[in-house]
Specification:
The protein has 249 residues and is of the alpha/beta class. It has a domain at 44-202: 2-Layer Sandwich (Nucleotidyltransferase, domain 5). The chain is built from 11 helices and 6 strands. The chain has helices spanning 15-18, 33-41, 51-56, 101-114, 125-131, 133-146, 174-177, 179-203, 209-212, 218-227, 235-241; strands spanning 5-7, 62-68, 77-83, 117-123, 154-158, 168-171. The protein has a 6-stranded mixed β-sheet. The N and C termini lie far apart (49 Å). The model is unreliable at 1-43 (pLDDT under 50).
Length: 249
């Protein structure tokens, strides 16, 4: 297939990270009850709508690609790439942030059991500070695709472009619209959450990393003011969030 890119994007501004944090930063602003009810009443979308035309054209190795941790103050941004068998339908695949932890864990195991190939890429806080979060997210996605162990025919990416010479389609809210991207979202989310709870929490106790996963919760901000940043905190994010306490960071 030609290395043709179809790019469907919406602007991403880093100041979204530094303003308007909700009590649950992973889900952003709360949706009204009326909007939630309306959404639940909508017919379920075809989550293979982007995959089917590609399979029909002969591209069988379709890799969904997504990242998590873009808005965190702490730790790596983590991306995953997943190739599922053509025609396979996995019930329950969705944007990982919309699923309970128990559901994500169960789907993670199911995805890996069925995947033709999967890979994970990580980019640390020092690199994020050096090249900015958007470029770091793209780099993590590139590493995830390269970690597949097999060259995919086409990439379906959640509202981004991967710096690789592979045909790709970027889809706004792709983790909720494409099964392949949703699967990658779940693999990336579970991978990063486990790092937070099992590795980084023990490495840096007192910050609550296992609980808030590095997002700018009240607990996390208070711990930063009391303990100061760790080597895994993103200094570029802290400088914006704690403008009045820059001397501490």
């Amino acid at each position: 297939m030609a290395d043709e890119k179809v790019y469907i994007d919406e602007p991403f501004f880093e100041d979204r990270i530094l303003a308007g944090f909700s009590a649950n930063p992973e889900k952003g602003a709360r949706t009204s009850k009326r909007a939630r009810v309306a959404k639940e009443a909508e017919p379920e979308a075809d989550r293979l709508a982007f995959e089917r035309p590609l399979w029909t054209s002969g591209a069988t190795g379709i890799a969904g690609v997504d990242e998590v941790g873009r808005g965190c103050l702490f730790g790596d941004v983590v991306a995953a790439a997943v190739i599922l068998p053509p025609g396979l339908i996995l019930d329950g695949i969705d944007d990982s942030k919309q699923l309970s932890e128990k559901k994500r864990e169960a789907l993670y195991e199911e995805i890996l059991a069925h995947a033709v190939a999967w890979g994970v890429g990580r980019v640390d806080a020092e690199t994020i500070d050096r090249i900015n979060i958007r470029q770091a997210s793209r780099l993590a996605m590139k590493l995830a695709v390269e970690g597949l162990g097999a060259a995919p025919d086409h990439l379906l990416v959640d509202a981004e472009s991967v710096p690789l010479p592979i045909a790709q389609t970027a889809i706004v809210k792709g983790d909720a619209r494409s099964q392949s991207i949703g699967a990658a979202s779940i693999v990336a989310k579970v991978t990063r959450d486990r790092l937070c709870a099992e590795t980084w929490e023990a490495l840096y106790p007192g910050y609550g990393i296992g609980a808030h996963k590095g997002y700018a919760t009240k607990q996390h901000r208070e711990a930063l003011l009391q303990l100061g940043p760790t080597p895994m905190h993103r200094r570029s994010f802290l400088n914006g969030l704690f403008a009045e306490q820059q001397a501490l960071f």
